[in-house]
Amino acid sequence: MMLKKLFPFFIKYYSKTGLFLIALFCTISLFYFKKMCLAADFNISSYISEAKPDYLHLLAQEKNKKKRILSSSDNDTGLWSNAFNFEKSWTAEVDPRTGILAVHFKVGSLLSNMGHGPNINLQINYNNNTLSNPDGIGLGWGWNLTHFNAMTNQLTTANGQSFWLYKIGKNNWQPLYHKLHDIKIEGDKSTHFTLIYANGLKEVLSHDGYETRLDQQNGWGVNFIYQPGTHLLKLITDDEGNAIAIDRNQGSLEIVSHKINGEPAAIRIKNNNSMPEIITFPSDAQVTNQPLKLSYKNHLLTHIIYPTGLDKTFTFNCTDAMKFSTSLSNHFHSLCVVVNEQTNPGAGQPAMKNHYLYSDANINGHNYLGFNSGLNSITNTQKDKLFEAPVGYVYQTIKDNGLTKEVHTYNKYHLLIDNKLVNNYTGKILSEAEYFFCSTKMHDSCSKTSFKNLPVTYSLPLKIVNRVWDSYPELPAVTTITREYDNFGRTIRSTDTYGRVMRIHYCPVEGDLQCPASPGGYFSACYLNQLHLILLQIPQKKHHRLIIQHITSIVNNLI
Predict the structure, then answer these.
(1) pTM surpassing 0.90?
(2) Cystine design at 446: which of 247, 268, 324, 437 (Cβ 3.0–4.6 Å)?
(3) What span, in angstroms and rounded, lies between the C-alpha atoms of 364 and 331?
(4) How many CB atoms lie within 10 A of CB 272?
(5) For the chain, how big is the Rg over CA atoms in Å?
(6) What pairing do the DSSP bridges indicate for beta strands 337-344 and 332-334?
(7) Cα(255)–Cα(252) distance, rounded to whole angstroms?
(8) CA atoms within a 13 Å half-sphere pointing along the CA-CB vector of 535
């Protein structure tokens, strides 16, 4: 039907304008990309395993054992902030929102179920703001696995986000201050939790909050097995018997990744005073066989020496760098935050130093805990009082390397709204990135409404404007990108710095009018930005505008 509408229009108008060939090419391109989209699907190669480690009998034994109620040792300070709800993807960096040192090291991998997944990259994570040791690795250390703390109702996901859960029904829980539809939580603390993500992954947590199973929508999965009577991880095994095994010997750990092909790879973590001190990588490592070394002062990680020779040193302030109220009185406590960071690349290269400023350097002394917000507050509460703060509440952190400083500004929902790079000697702004949420027309419009009135995608930027100043401060170079999202937080439309448009359609596993069913159980996506580029290149003369608008409307209907 679309061809019958489209071709007479081409012949009538384009034969006179000389654009017939271009329009015909556009039409062919449209149906070509449409066909490619219908065929698009993510496929993963399959591998056949000849030798299967004999771990399946351990899984059977665990299922037959009597269930035990285990008490969690993950009893954190009770201090809560929605600033913890952001993913931590760095290796050893300071979180600019909170001043917390976040570190992770990869210690195991599993290409599970003959390549069908879900694949596991096991990491140990460090957070200096906790004294807990839920996994028996060390104070502040834990696996990158989803865990629910029944004592505090706090859920920490594998990607590093942290939520406080509240009950909304008999067996349904909802993360506080989280609106995206990308996670569904079912179950009860007395039995177990099931977490279902928008990408189809499903996690099952035991009654004491530890992950026991991770499933994909194609039916494949992996199991998590713990030492009997404890919550110490012992084994991660897939449905085919391939595994990551954790062996503990006098506090030290050996993590062995049993791969489908090749010899097992072992990473050893040597503890000193119950804290990880030396991490030894497999002897066949490509770069170096030197270990990674860690040093502490009390429980705070102060020094990291990498196998390549690079080393990082961190200095903490535990007195007045980050304050928070403890009662309705004027008393306050302080958190330990990183105030100085030094990186020495080695090989005679100069050291790089960063200095961090928090509460005292912020606007009106504000910080992410709401200090000086004018609101009454007490400790041991899960609610984030910044969400009730006045409209104009913002807080800043500053990272100063001696030559320049980065000024990060966040609104009361902990969203980065402005990031400036300033020359220390001249005081001039070298570059600035401005982030727009909820609206692309008004700066920081999200903070001008209550949380319940925010859109589902309030935490995702709709527009980012970058400005760079050179010799002419009144004429910065300006680039803008935009994004649109669905209710799962997936990008459905974007523009880049050149104004090019990309539309993305996500196909459900069962298929729809635009996509076939996915036999492998994976989501597929089709990209139709090429045709938009072609249409944009057609000369926009006055008597052509109606023609272009007509074609564009037909194209958009097809998309």
Answers:
(1) no
(2) 437
(3) 18
(4) 14
(5) 27
(6) unpaired
(7) 10
(8) 23
